Amino acid sequence: MPSNNNSASKVSGQLNSVAGTLQETVGNLIGSKDMSRKGATRHTQGEAEISRAKAGGYVQGATDRITGKKDAIMGSVRGDKSRQAQGNARHDKGQVKVSAH
Predict the structure, then answer these.
(1) How many domains does the chain have?
(2) What domain range is 35 assigned to?
(3) Would 3 be classed as within a structural domain?
(4) Which domain of life is it from (predicted)?
């Protein structure tokens, strides 16, 4: 079954995708069109959850990159080395998130 909460999860999506594929296969083997159809639906829902989780991670990473760059620039302009370093760190963290998705 798809996750009941609003946050998409790659792990939950993968579990649902695999479980759906298994259910669909068993349905095909035993001749149960209903089981096969339900399995295909569960697989599709799992794949959609994976896609939502990836998109959410990408958006969060892009937001971190932009906010981090802004903070680094503001720190540089104001001579605040601490803010500049924190901004650079957040930018880099965002870059890793974007690259992972």
Answers:
(1) 1
(2) 10-100
(3) no
(4) Eukaryota
